[in-house]
Amino acid sequence: MSHNDHTLQEALGQHLETLKSGEDPDDWIRDLMEWLLQEVLELEFNQYLGAAPYERCQDRKGYRNGYYQRELFTRVGRLTLRVPRDRQGRFSTEIFERYQRSEKALVLALQESYLQGVSTRKVKKITEKLCGVQFSKDQVSSMAQGLDEELGLWRSRPLEKAYPYLVVDAHYEYVREDGQVESDGVLLVKGVGEDGYREILSVFVAPTEEEATWNEVFSDLLGRGLDAGEIECITSDEHKGLRKAMRRYLPRATWQRCQTHYQRNAAGKVPAKAREEVHAGLRDVFNAPDAQRAWQRARRLMDGWRSRFPELVEWLGETLQDALVVFSLPKEHRTRMRTNNGLERFHEEIRRRTRVVRIFPNRMSCLRLCTALSMEQSEDWLTGHRYLDMDVLEENQPQMIELSKQEAVLA
Question: Helices 259-267 and 310-323: crossing angle, nearest 10°?
């Protein structure tokens, strides 16, 4: 247990009581955040030593030697944490470095907005609370320089392993450029490596999501060592510029059109009252056990809809094959690779953080925060559970080639 020897339930109860007494809600949130991070520190230190406080065991790797204080600056205020120390002085925690990286990027965006005179009253209040009223352009510039160097090195890091699968997606943020507020695209590429772990391979912020921008993204990936010949499949939504760039730079890779986006596109071609029927019908096709039965189900649907929804049936005949490419992959990989929903959820996490800024003062400020969040997400993925068992990919290569031939005939 931690220094305060409380359970989470006790801590919540205590803080709720103080909240009822009229205490500032921000103070309550800050105190709870401080308590939770202290608990994480204690658990991390227990794992490092291989023993809890006063525990006697053969697996112990060291002994405690008190604490030292560190401050962590967050959006809910300044947190004071007691960092455990071992006798050899070797224990180090990633909490500060990883947490402060994205927090610094967020605070910098707010500070830059404030200094450029484009901040709202809400931004002014947040910056004063987090940073104090006194901060100068020189302080902001110095802070940005160190962080930008670290994030730039990560964005340009060499890609030294194969990535059989890529997932590509974008979202938009408001950015101020030359006195005008523009909607800039945040373009992300996620890779699933030959070891089965995910990571964000590329982060770009650009004024448009056109072919030239995606050309730059893929050119950068290849220049950093991405082996185009090792890529089996790319999952994304339908975007003409993106598709052209993929054909140019990654011509051997198959393209899986995101089935979630495909269902939405299909539903837009029928009256509102028929949309659930279309969703259900396509779900049945996508959940088929193999390509042959998927096409059989699709043909039955199209035969039944031909007189009612001729526009939809014509569109399905032209595009459905793109949404069924995933059946050429090993069965164990299909659920993960048939949509870009996982990357879309991460885009939502980025938006949750960027809502505080609302309008970025410049493109670099947006890139900084999106990169910091992507870097931390990648670290979580690479140190977490294995996303896919990639051994089955090599075992199923002959079967995948045969399935691809069958699909061409069935289509």
Answer: 170
Tell me whether strands 233-236 and 64-74 are parallel, antiparallel or unpaired: unpaired
198-222 confidence digits (pLDDT tens) = 999 999 999 887 899 999 999 999 9
Domain assignment present for residue 105? The answer is: no
User: Number of structural domains, the chain?
Assistant: 2
Per-residue model confidence (pLDDT) at position 396: 65
Query: Which ranges of the chain have pLDDT less than 70?
Result: 1-29, 72-77, 94-104, 106-144, 396-411
Residue-by-residue DSSP string for 205-228 = EES--SHHHHHHHHHHHHHTT--G
Report the C-alpha gap between 151 and 138 in whole angstroms: 20
Q: Are residues 198 and 52 in the same domain?
A: no
347 and 252 co-located in one domain: yes
User: Is 251 domain-assigned?
Assistant: yes
Residues 85 and 206 in one domain: no
* 302, 344 contact by CB (below 8 A): no
Say whether both 245 and 357 belong to one domain. Answer: yes
Is-contact 262 274, C-beta < 8 A? no
pLDDT at position 68? 77
Question: Looking at 57, 75, 93, which one is the last position of a domain?
Answer: 93
The DSSP code sequence of 41-99 is HHHHHHHHHTS-TT---TT----EEEEEEEEEEETTEEEEEEEEEETTS----SHHHHH
Residue 359 forms part of a structural domain: yes
Give residue 2's pLDDT: 42
CATH number at residue 190: 3.30.420.10
Q: How do residues 280-321 score in pLDDT, each as one tens digit?
A: 999 999 999 999 999 999 999 999 999 999 999 999 999 999
Q: Output the six-digit token pair for 201.
A: 């391979």
| Continuous H helices in 224-340 | 240-249, 259-267, 275-286, 291-305, 310-323, 331-337
For residue 363, being part of any structural domain is answered with: yes
Do 254 and 343 have their domain in common? yes
pLDDT of residue 337: 97
Are the C-beta atoms of 129 and 74 separated by less than 8 Å? no
Domain holding 23, by residue range, is 8-93
Separation of alpha carbons 129 and 205, rounded Å: 29
Show which of 93, 116, 132 is a domain's final residue.
Answer: 93
If residue 27 lies in a helix (H) or strand (E), which one and from where to where? helix 25-49
